[in-house]
Amino acid sequence: MQFKYSIEGGDFSKAGNASSQVKKMLKQLNVEPQTIKRVVVALYEAEVNIVAHAYNGIIDITIETDKIVAKLTDNGPGIPDINLAMTEGFSTATSHVREMGFGAGLGLPNIKKNADKLEIKSEVGKGTELTITVNL
Amino acid sequence: MLRINIRLIIKVMKIKEVAELLKAKVYGSEDNINKEVEFAFASDLMSDVLTLKANNVLLLTGLANIQSVRTAEMAEVTNIIYVRGKKITADMKDLAEESGILLMECNYSMFKTAALLYNAGVNPIY
After folding, report:
1. How far lies B103's CA from each of A118, B14, B86, in Å?
2. What are phi and psi of B46, to 5 degrees?
3. Which residues are CB-contacts of A47 (< 8 A; sequence separation ≥ 6)?
4. Which of A59, A63, B20, B122 could form a disulfide with A1 if both were Cys (CB 3.0 to 4.6 A apart)?
5. A66-84 b/e with 16+ CB inside 10 Å = b?
6. pLDDT (tens digit, 9 = 90+) per residue, B63-121?
7. What is the CA radius of gyration of chain B?
8. Among residues 53-82 of chain B, which lie with CB inside 8 Å of chain A?
């Protein structure tokens, strides 16, 4: 099964809509609750990252018999130093993002903790592609 | 002044009892006031809330916006108390109802709210 969602950068009122829809779908598919939580927490963190940092983005969800793969592709500034971005506490978020309760430098590390596999590809000035895999 | 600390050792508290203790206003279905809470977590930082492993948590926060409710939905936080007199907006109520999350408003500070709940026997996560 495959699903696609569009994300607008900067629009915090809608941040999490896609993750919420994925959560409802996984519940309907009777996926184990702790697995659903891992998928949606990782996905929500990544969705908030697109809203906070990029101009727009696409989420592709693929559900297979043994895994769920979420690929998030954005048009945005990209990440100059991925290792630094993976460091807990490092953040380039604006004050507006912090007012929303995010931007503490915990997003990417928390995605990694919840995922079985995390791949990050990024090009400065173009955008970032995150692939999050959670095994079923 | 002599201060005696007594912490009740009880396993769970009902929402009804939480609301009475905190003089809090509850938003949501009447059915929910008999729901039980065992664990609570206090934070204005939603990134921290997203790192919680526990489910059915009571969240104390002063961050009254739509993202606090959305974060609760993702982190399996089932109840939120907005402290420091923060007001719940219509869009927050709508999303909470859709997600089965109970919301409360309380005028006490985060510190006092946490202290009262802890002394009443609600457990910390860490």
Report:
1. 34, 14, 12
2. -70, -25
3. A7, A15, A16, A18, A19, A59, A72
4. A63
5. eebbbbbbbebbbbeeeee
6. 999 999 999 999 999 999 999 999 999 999 999 999 999 999 999 999 999 999 999 99
7. 14
8. 55, 63, 65-68, 70-71, 73-76
Q: How many CB atoms lie within 10 A of CB B31?
A: 8
Element (H, E) at A39: helix A33-53
Cα end-to-end distance, chain A, whole Å: 14
| Residue B1 DSSP label | -
Measure the CA–CA gap between A130 and A119, rounded to whole angstroms: 6
Tokens linked to B68: 């606090």
Rounded CA-CA distance A99/A95 in Å is 6
Nearest to B70 among A15, A105, A107 (CB): A15
Closest CA to B61 of A1, A72, B69: B69
**Of A43, A4, A5, the residue nearest A23 (C-alpha):** A43
Identity of the amino acid at A70: A
Pair B31, B14: CB distance under 8 Å: no
Nearest to B82 by CA among B97, B98, B69, B95: B69
Q: The whole model's pTM is what?
A: 0.91
Strand (E) positions, B15-106?
25-27, 36-37, 39-42, 57-61, 77-82, 102-105
Token representation of residue B108: 């006490």
Interface ipTM: 0.90
Single-letter amino acid, residue A93: A
